Amino acid sequence: MIPFSNDPEMLEILESFFIETDELLENFSQDLMILESHPDDLELLNKIFRSIHTIKGTSSFMGFDKIQNLTHHAEDLLNKLRKGELKASVPIFDCLLEVHDWVRLLVDNVKNGVDTNVDYQNTINQIEILRHPAATTETIEDKSNTSKIVDVPENSKTTSNEQSALESILNNSNIGNHSGDFTDEELELIQAAFAEVNKDFNQEHKPESISKNLSEINDIKPVIENIQSEAISAIKEETKPIDKKDHIPGSTKAQSTETIRVDVNRLEVLMDLSGELVLGRNRLAQITEIMDQDSKNKDKISDLIETTAQIDFITSEIQAAVMRMRMVAIGKLYQKVPRIVRDLSKEFSKKINLVLKGEETEIDRGIIDELNDPLVHMIRNSCDHGIETPEQRMAAGKSPEGTITLDAEQEGNNIVLRIIDDGKGLDSEKLKAKGIERGLITAEAANQMSKREIFQLIFAPGFSMAAKVTNVSGRGVGMDVVRTNIQKLKGIIDIDSEVGKGTTFTIKLPLTLAIIQGLLVKVKNETYAIPLSTVVEVVSVDLDKVYYVNQKEVIRIREDVLPLLRLDRNLGVKDANTGLENRYVVVVGLGTNRLGFVVDELLGQQEIVIKSLGDYLGHISGIAGATIMGDGRVIMIIDASEVLEKEYEMMSIH
Amino acid sequence: MKYLVVDDSPTMRRIVINALKSFGIEDIIEAEDGIDGLNKMKDSKPEFIITDWNMPNMNGLEFTKAVRGNPEYASIPILMVTTRGLKQDIIEALQAKVNNYVVKPFTPLVLKEKIGAILKT
Question: What is the ipTM of this complex?
């Protein structure tokens, strides 16, 4: 933001420019890819043109010369497409998408206040080559354009003796036909022409002068009408499809007027405050209850109870409303995917169809942002390793075109996102062998693992599925990062795959991050919350079923053997009970891994607002955050996934 | 005096409106395309229109023609603001009876001069 850092008005405009340009760029690339498969959609082409045209216009005001230059060239190219002087082709789309990438980069540079050297000259050269497929036809068309204009005044000889400014312009075919700005002379002429029109215009519309100038107007009128009809027919000829489309009543218009843009940070503040409100409400409810039990003044108390109930209701409504405000259609997340699939199909010489489903499914905005990188990585993975080459597919008796499907839906309090490919599937034997080779599992362990557990191996750090490391996947950022990111969002990721048929990745995420359902448990005298999303079941300890394996406590539940973790010891609670009598096991699960937390008492479940521990405490291993109870106590929320992962890591070492 | 600013780009509207405000013009209404412009005019009639050319649904040229074609609005001055600076474009604008024409990017001063020139005649 170097150029305008001091002017608040300019900053506001700049902010507006960023928001608008981000949106336009997204539309631009999306629409381009739709146009690629529907090259005859002129309405869409016009929309694409307008997107880039608007960016050109606004960036020219902001003084972003590079953006203006790039968009100007792209606009020229698009104009040729609009006029049918060029046929849409893959190189043109490539080039326009490159323009998109450059502009994106340039805008981001401005946003971040960096001024890296952006060399887009190749793209511009490419545009120039594309624009002039054959120099000869170009000149012919230029001439025809000029002659069209020169023709106009021929039929419109005015009755006035002197040549009007308007006429001079019409007669002077050189105006505007040279490159660069108008000359001073030309500008003067244009201004004079406008003055003339204004004069006519005013005479025409000022009632008092009508009678006075009637004869004059009658002289001028046929001239103007003549010119007008001439010009209009010329315009119509040139912009026929555009005109037609533009007259079709807009269908998307009505929606846009009903929304306003709000800074995410402000929403964040509102979210925090509504969280605080929930805490206050909980506290109020508790105090009311205590007073109800103690007080003799029942009349007053019933008023208080009523008011508390009302506040309770309103708080819940406010909270729900704030949550809804943060909800964004998951389609926003899909936006980048078509481009990625398009580029990768080209790179790998594969044919890949992309099917997007459930775009309207809503999810918390914070989750969308965090989900972007994992999704991009998984899509790349599916394109690279999942879908086979057309030859391989045909040899396997499949259609040469592979399909990747993205499907989102809401299931209760969760969002389920599936990435489905109909590619070659995961070969569990190969994965096993690789897992052993990489020292991730022992041969014995491998034999006991279920298919599902073996698939989970691809999420292990240092596990790369690719036989050879390609440019796209296998750059060290692997599927382990994907899983870590999903877990950070309190989500789980699961794989289902069949050799020859394809692979399905299922990501399950909570609808929102800020408020969770927690299971409140007592460990000795302390209360803790365990996120309910990780809880699989709760059982009471049956001493007959407790065994020791490698000096670790395990418990048998039905057919499964479950490692136990004494939460009291783990959390360093004083005077921890030694026995297991009359205690409970909270079974938590992550993927296929299960772990049993031993607790003393179950207090029930409650909606809890997650508060971070703040900078001074930072991240404490095993603790996801804290929440404030109705009675004002602060309790810790156990990060079940982290604890579970740590335990499994330790077990695999021993 | 009420101004109507018609542009599909919120940023461009801001730029124009900021310029207008710097001239002391406060009574400004906005519209995002020609159709929206005509709708807004039903509610409150502007005395001066500044319109973009290239817009979805109804472009500035069509909007101008629609305004000129309605006897109630026909005398409202229209200033066209656009990046299209070719001779043909100017002629088209002239034919549609735009009162004047500013090519983007412009400085507030140029905008002021053009408005002034229209109001003087």
Answer: 0.81
